[in-house]
Amino acid sequence: MLNFNNESMKKFYIDYKIIIAVMLLGFLSCSDDFLERPPEDTYSLDEFYSTDEQVEASTNALYGKTWFFLHNKTLYAIAEVGGGNAFTYSSDVNGLRLLNITSTDPVLTDAWKSCFATVAQSNSLINLLPSRVGDEVDQEVLNNTLGEAHFMRALAYFYLVRLWRAVPIIENNAEHVNDPQLNTNPQEDIYRFIESDLNYAIDNLYAKTRGSNYEANGHVSKGSARALMAKVLLYQEKYDEARAMAEQVINSGEFKLFGGEQLPNESFGNLYKIENNNNEESIVAWQWTLGNYFTGNYLNTMFAYSSIINNSTYGGTFAPSQDLLNAFEPGDLRRKQTVMLPGDYYPDLPSANGPDFTVPEDIDPQNAGAGIKKYVVGKNGITDGNGGSPNNTYIMRYGELFLIHAEAILAGAQSTANPAALESYNTIRERAGLQPVNSFTFDDLLHERRIELAFEGDYWFDLGRISPQKAVEIVAAQNRGDEDNPEYADPRPTDFILPYPSSELILNPKLGEDPIPYNFD
């Protein structure tokens, strides 16, 4: 188990020997095939990577366990409550409801340590794995594994730069064990570092075509790296490059929208079922499994409005905001699969009342008068004693890539009627049962992203990348109160950059200094 505490300066910059030990204990994944490996205690460090299978297993922890503290409440407290999609009175996760978060808020520490744990474990693979493989290991297997580590390090830094802008770039944790106080580097350097890692991943990861063998889709591919690169480029307003990268993925045929015309009323909701983990639309996802507290997905507990429909003793930590409830267009099929309203019927949501579920009139988590449906799988019989399930969590879906492509063509303009942009934009609208449009504005696109990706940990980051004044106007207009008590925030342009965790500032006072350029030599 990864052990993250604030008792030592070295907890942040983990010694490489500890990292290797963690890797040996932490190979976890949602598919059985990830778990079929020899017992770790029969191998020394030098012997462990003697086969292709052992090398391939070395990245499994990077698909779940290192991300646990970010995923467990934290991402949703920031991106969904902060973005105005979710609502809660729960004191441990409501600091961003009215943008009153401080440096002592535990969600900041959890996000920080989770991202840097992923960086540390990725670094250990990147720096040590090439010298710890036997002669029988195929070079392509080694290259692909290193590509995965570079991808996950890039993903960790993509979260870090969007949350804090300037953070320290660390390529080898072992170099900083004796002097763990590091300056931050400017966000343009962070993005350059992310692009470098993703280019490495593109060059070294396997090419795939996502099919019905979902177990084969769990690990990232060249297409995954190109798709994430398109998003990274979009955030930097490198519109031409983002468009070209998105088109490479779209034209490759690797991914497809899930469900499509066969089940138009249910296809969107089916994306979030356990049996559809790693489906054709999944570009990259956190992989969860049953076992202990640090390996399960707890969204079924946190999002389900009541223990009536989950396998836990509580529910409803988060509820939909009043602002989001009012944001769905009439006829949008995503509404019922994203939020529950009184009277909604779900034929395949097992609950304490039977194999199906009708939302009662008195549904009232957090006094919101509605509940979250996305990622709620009910009493499915395969949750662990803590309420965790083996349901994947999307980090990026193919559906989002169409909106990235459309926005890249829009390229900062107020509106567009470009046929290629419209094709991508309308692809998402039509799956949602909405009429295609002949043009769209940036505000339309931002709205479409909000609805498509609600409760997937993205909207706060969208607000953080647009004009600060526009973000202020959007948040100031949101009803951030409950069903009976409207309440509004008073945001400032600086609110969309989070403070460094106070515990980290104590350990590393250089976080409070001006960032310095990174030496890429």
Keywords:
521 residues, mainly alpha, Serine Threonine Protein Phosphatase 5, Tetratricopeptide repeat, two-stranded antiparallel sheet, two-stranded antiparallel ribbon, 5% strand, signal, membrane, TPR-like_helical_dom_sf, SusD_RagB_dom
What does this structure look like?
- Helix 7 packs antiparallel against helix 8 and helix 16 packs antiparallel against helix 18.
- Strands 1-3 form a two-stranded antiparallel sheet.
- By secondary structure, the protein is mostly helical.
- The longest helix has 26 residues, at 139-164.
- It is 40% helix and 5% strand.
Helices and strands, with pairings:
Layout: H1 16-25, H2 32-35, H3 45-48, H4 52-57, H5 68-71, H6 74-81, E1 86-87, H7 106-128, H8 139-164, H9 187-204, H10 222-235, H11 239-252, H12 267-270, E2 282-286, H13 299-303, E3 319-320, H14 322-325, H15 334-338, E4 339-340, E5 345-346, E6 357-358, E7 371-372, E8 393-397, H16 398-410, E9 415-416, H17 419-431, E10 440-441, H18 442-452, H19 459-465, H20 468-476, H21 502-507
Antiparallel strand pairs: 1-3, 2-8, 4-7, 5-6, 9-10
Helix pairs in contact: 1-7, 6-7, 7-8, 8-9, 9-10, 10-11, 10-16, 11-16, 16-17, 16-18
Summarize the structure.
The chain has 521 residues and is mostly helical. The protein contains 21 helices and ten strands. Keywords: Cell outer membrane, Membrane, Signal.
